[in-house]
Amino acid sequence: MLGGLYTHPRYRGLGLGTTVTSALTIEALKRSQRAIAYVESRNKPSLRILEKLGYQKTRDIMFADIGTGVRPLMN
Fold first, then answer.
1. Stated pTM of the model
2. Considering only CA atoms, which of 9, 5, 25 is closest in space to residue 17?
3. DSSP state, 11?
């Protein structure tokens, strides 16, 4: 499962996100039959990268943070 990938704003638009996500996807597929990525639905740049690499949306997961800063584990 891929998630939480981040490119510093100074280096965005250089293809680094695509390169890193592609490399991680290749490694994930060496170890499993499929790779899964999670991304916030409003994160259009990340969604474009995943689409370019062949990922397809399968479901939405919703969570709410009431000021704890804690995110649920993704199953």
1. 0.76
2. 5
3. G
How far does CA 34 lie from the centroid of its chain? 14
Compute the distance between CA of residue 22 and CA of residue 44 in angstroms, rounded to an integer: 17
pLDDT for the residue 68: 79
Backbone torsions φ then ψ of 15, nearest 5 degrees? 90, 5
Residue with tokens 């994160």: 43
Q: Where are the alpha helices (DSSP H) in 1-75?
A: 16-31, 44-52
Q: For residue range 19-50, what is the model confidence (pLDDT) as tens digits?
A: 999 999 999 999 999 999 988 888 899 999 99
1-65: CATH homologous superfamily?
Gcn5-related N-acetyltransferase (GNAT) (3.40.630.30)
- Residue whose C-alpha is closest to residue 56's, from 25, 14, 20, 32: 25
Q: Quick count: other Cβ atoms within 10 Å of Cβ 27? A: 12
